[in-house]
């Protein structure tokens, strides 16, 4: 799956495919709010097994009645190689390792106050997250994220001009406020790079 197919999925270019992915994701997350992850995995596995066993028996009966020799209905999938190549694992492990190292460096910079303004912004963000955490649990935030992921791109695409206009105004006002605060409080001026 490449970046273009993910964008097509989020912008609902193929409504059936996006509907299946969105519905399945939302169903899984909503199921996890009611049942434990073990139960959800077990129910999904039982449902999948029910469908595949029923289809295999149905095809077997049809083959017996028609006296045909089509073979196993899932033979094409059973013959496919599903092993993950070592090159693929190395490729993605290098990407993950790079992101991990960058995250550790940034957290070190923030916690050891390399730049006072950035560390204060991070502190405010963590303070806001304490309130978010008190209001929502992680699963609720994931449900909201999935719904947002599948709705915000479409809304933005339809109303891009108005949204860009108002975001520009908000961005300008925030920058002006931050500049005023930095000018009034000594020690908060950003370091020149």
UniProtKB/TrEMBL annotation:
Residues 6-193 form the Reticulon domain. Its main location: endoplasmic reticulum. It is a multi-pass membrane protein. Keywords: Endoplasmic reticulum, Membrane, Transmembrane, Transmembrane helix. Signal peptide: none annotated. GO terms for biological process: brain development; endoplasmic reticulum tubular network formation; neuron differentiation. InterPro entries: Reticulon, RTN1-4. It comes from the Eukaryota. The keyword Ribonucleoprotein does not apply. One of its GO terms (cellular component) is postsynaptic density. The chain crosses the membrane at residues 20-49, 135-156. It is found in: Endoplasmic reticulum membrane. This is Reticulon. It comes from Eublepharis macularius (Leopard gecko). The lineage of its organism: Eukaryota, Metazoa, Chordata, Craniata, Vertebrata. The gene is RTN4.
